[in-house]
């Protein structure tokens, strides 16, 4: 049984099916490839897709994972679930001016579930789910490609027939092992693309089910059409591209279910041909189904717009330089060049990079630029394919080429800059879905070559070689995504002009304590992009720590001059000015930072340190109190409050603050130590001793902990215990200030006691 009826005068659907089965060419006929039962095909695809990315299972959190997962408060149990529906992918409020408006609550929900089940930020569980998702999607592709390449046909029992088992297997394998998918699978943030693709495919397969019981040639299930719309909405809640499935379902309906000849339809519309009324357009319910799809899509987009707000996302020139070009010609030329690079990544996925912004691809500003050739090649191929898709006399060829182009182009439209500015130049993750179209076109091209080739097995071996190379490339690329160091260094050879690549290599080195090497990469990042304020800020920080204050101040001053609302740079500039003893300027810099970032506990902490240096004790305590209100676990601010109150003789207040701090951060040994000192001075020796011992248990190698406990025992009269801890302290730090003097005093006292006893 088949879903539709090509000839209006055909007596019944069964006859239509037999006639089509005889006349429509079979794509598998001339292809020399493996013919496996459906179950085995899916098992092979699942296994190979697993092998490609299995070595990424124990990778770290890398690149954007830090912001989307580790620093995203929406993953934590204390954040209400309802907040997910009002925040963007990165945990910021959608109403915020800094939000990227990427609304993917279902993806964030899966991250939250991962976090809760793992009991924390352990990346293995996150990676395993990504691998499973890609394997599932690849298996679903066997069914999807069997429909796209072989057509949608059902048996008398309503079971869908796979009329292209060999080519659907080949296309699914091509998809499963494509190296460009590594970012989506090995990078945890790629979960958004994987979930979107999963529901995207389920929506398509659901739409196909609407025609399973089509016995009259025009009946269909409204239920399954609506299910398809709902699944499209779910796909969009995972990532924005998901909405495009509704358009593809409409294209599929027109070409496969209604077998429309697009060129013929256009000609009839232009000539106002009356025969248009007698076409299958109305009779087969196409317009009604497209109306359902369009209404559903419009409703989804309206709700999304209402949630997101009217403001567009804020991106900077470094994110997408072509979109900021003044000339329409320059923008158009560069957008098209980006399209050609995306096409090249599908054809030859050898040069892969985690980030393609910041000078990685210099702008084309003149027609004399040799890269114009890439645009010409792209449009030459596209126009050729479009002409064949519209004008070919072979209806089977028209259908496959149009579907291939549709799946290649339509899911890519949200990333094309045509409707709104996007925050990247090229992103490998956004061609996860368009690669479906590439696999269709590649497989169809292979079938045409097989038809002409005399030695079909050689051609099959060549394709098998491509698959094997792609498997190895996936495994290599997955290993590069296992750690930030490997990932960032792999990009140096692909995008040596990308300032962000050098910045990330430098940041990774700085995090590992290799400041000298980090400085080199930060300087190169600033050289490549003289307005790269984050590189200036990080370089200024390292120079500040190395006491190269003059250059640090110059860099940080330039950073805030370029970006006046850069709060972190203002705070770091204040720290440098404080070190240079320019206190008034430092105070002004701190308050400017707080002006641009109201909730900035670290800045309040540094402001408190400034006030303490100026003996403005009340102001210092207020600043540190603000830091702890904004960040209750700010241990340094609590400690400084306790120490300042202790040093100024306010022991009762210091004790109260210390107890309050330990209630909030019960396992912080530095707070235990500070409070123990206060309690010792208040002659609460027993409680002080307990806290000292607890702090030493948590940090046994802190010489000061043993030294101060020894002082407590010394005062308390437990001289043997005092002697023991003085000796431990001196062993850990022979130069500990005051400890040696106190130890010598104790020894003299013990000697005197021995003489008296003697």
From TrEMBL:
Residues 311-383 form the DUF1736 domain. The keyword Kinase does not apply. It is a multi-pass membrane protein. The keyword ATP-binding does not apply. The chain crosses the membrane at residues 131-151, 188-208, 220-237, 286-305, 372-391, 403-424, 430-449, 458-476. Gene3D superfamilies: Tetratricopeptide repeat domain (1.25.40.10). Keywords: Endoplasmic reticulum, Membrane, Repeat, TPR repeat, Transferase, Transmembrane, Transmembrane helix. SUPFAM superfamilies: TPR-like. One of its GO terms (molecular function) is dolichyl-phosphate-mannose-protein mannosyltransferase activity. It is found in: Endoplasmic reticulum; Membrane. Pathway: Protein modification; protein glycosylation. It comes from the Eukaryota. One of its GO terms (cellular component) is membrane. InterPro entries: O-mannosyl-transferase_TMTC, TMTC_DUF1736, TPR-like_helical_dom_sf, TPR_rpt. Pfam families: TMTC_DUF1736, TPR_16, TPR_19. Its EC number is 2.4.1.109. TPR repeats lie at residues 499-532, 533-566, 601-634, 703-736. One of its GO terms (biological process) is endoplasmic reticulum unfolded protein response. Belongs to the TMTC family. This is dolichyl-phosphate-mannose--protein mannosyltransferase. It comes from Piaya cayana.
């Amino acid at each position: 049984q088949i879903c539709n009826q090509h000839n209006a005068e055909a007596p019944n659907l069964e006859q239509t099916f037999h006639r089509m089965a005889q006349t429509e060419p079979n794509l598998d006929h001339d292809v020399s490839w493996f013919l496996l039962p459906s179950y085995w095909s899916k098992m092979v695809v699942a296994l190979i897709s697993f092998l490609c990315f299995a070595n990424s299972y124990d990778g770290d959190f890398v690149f954007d994972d830090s912001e989307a997962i580790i620093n995203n408060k929406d993953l934590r149990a204390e954040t209400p679930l309802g907040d997910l529906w009002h925040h963007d992918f990165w945990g910021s409020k959608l109403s915020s001016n800094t939000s990227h408006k990427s609304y993917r609550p279902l993806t964030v929900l899966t991250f939250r579930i991962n976090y809760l089940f793992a009991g924390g930020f352990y990346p293995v569980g996150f990676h395993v789910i990504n691998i499973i998702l890609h394997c599932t999607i690849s298996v679903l592709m066997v069914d999807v490609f069997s429909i796209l390449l072989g057509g949608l046909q059902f048996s008398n029992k309503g079971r869908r027939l796979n009329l292209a088992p060999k080519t659907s297997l080949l296309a699914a394998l091509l998809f499963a092992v494509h190296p460009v998918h590594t970012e989506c699978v090995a990078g945890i943030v790629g979960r958004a693309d994987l979930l979107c693709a999963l529901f995207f495919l389920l929506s398509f397969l659901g739409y196909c089910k609407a025609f399973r019981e089509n016995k009259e040639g025009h009946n269909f299930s409204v239920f399954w059409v609506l299910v398809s719309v709902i699944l499209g909405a779910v796909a969009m809640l995972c990532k924005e591209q998901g909405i495009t499935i509704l358009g593809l379902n409409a294209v599929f309906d027109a070409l496969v279910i209604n077998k429309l000849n697009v060129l013929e339809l256009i000609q009839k519309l232009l000539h106002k041909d009356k025969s248009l009324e007698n076409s299958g357009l109305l009779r087969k319910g196409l317009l009604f189904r497209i109306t359902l799809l369009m209404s559903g899509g419009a409703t989804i987009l309206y709700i999304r717009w209402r949630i997101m707000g009217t403001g567009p996302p804020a991106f900077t020139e470094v994110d997408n330089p072509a979109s900021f070009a003044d000339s329409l010609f320059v923008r158009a030329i560069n957008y098209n060049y980006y399209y050609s690079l995306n096409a090249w990544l599908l054809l030859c996925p050898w040069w892969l990079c985690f980030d393609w912004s910041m000078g990685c691809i210099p702008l084309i500003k003149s027609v004399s630029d040799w890269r114009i050739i890439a645009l010409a090649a792209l449009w030459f191929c596209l126009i050729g394919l479009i002409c064949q898709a519209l004008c070919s006399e072979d209806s089977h060829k028209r259908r496959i080429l149009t579907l291939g182009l549709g799946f290649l182009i339509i899911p890519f439209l949200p990333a094309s800059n045509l409707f709104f500015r996007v925050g990247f130049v090229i992103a490998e993750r956004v061609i996860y879905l368009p690669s479906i179209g590439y696999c269709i076109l590649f497989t169809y091209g292979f079938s045409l070559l097989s038809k002409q080739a005399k030695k079909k097995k050689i051609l099959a071996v060549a394709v098998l070689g491509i698959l094997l190379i792609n498997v190895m490339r996936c495994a290599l690329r997955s290993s590069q995504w296992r750690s930030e160091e490997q990932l960032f260094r792999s990009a140096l050879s692909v995008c040596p002009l990308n300032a962000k690549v050098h910045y990330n290599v430098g940041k990774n080195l700085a995090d590992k304590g290799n400041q000298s090497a980090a400085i080199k990469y930060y300087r190169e990042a600033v050289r490549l992009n003289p307005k790269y304020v984050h590189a200036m800020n990080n370089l200024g920080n390292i120079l500040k720590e190395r006491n190269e204050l003059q250059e640090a101040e110059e860099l940080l001053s330039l950073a805030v001059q370029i970006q006046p609302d850069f709060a972190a740079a203002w705070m770091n500039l204040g720290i440098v000015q404080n070190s240079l003893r320019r206190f008034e300027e430092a105070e002004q810099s701190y308050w400017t930072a707080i002006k641009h970032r109201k909730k900035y506990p670290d800045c309040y902490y540094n402001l408190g340190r400034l006030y303490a240096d100026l003996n403005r004790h009340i102001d210092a305590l207020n600043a540190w109190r603000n830091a702890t209100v904004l960040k209750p676990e700010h241990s340094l601010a609590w400690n400084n409050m306790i120490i300042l109150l202790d040093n100024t003789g306010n022991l009762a207040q210091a004790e109260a603050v210390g107890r309050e701090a330990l209630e909030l951060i019960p396992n912080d040994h530095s707070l235990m130590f500070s409070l123990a000192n206060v309690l010792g001075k208040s002659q609460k020796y027993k409680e002080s001793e307990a806290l000292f011992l607890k702090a030493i248990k948590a940090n046994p190698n802190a010489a000061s902990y043993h030294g101060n406990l020894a002082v407590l025992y010394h005062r308390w009269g437990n001289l043997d215990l005092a002697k023991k801890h003085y000796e431990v302290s001196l062993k850990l730090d022979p130069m500990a200030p005051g400890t040696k003097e106190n130890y010598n005093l104790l020894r003299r006292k013990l000697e005197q006691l021995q003489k008296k006893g003697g």
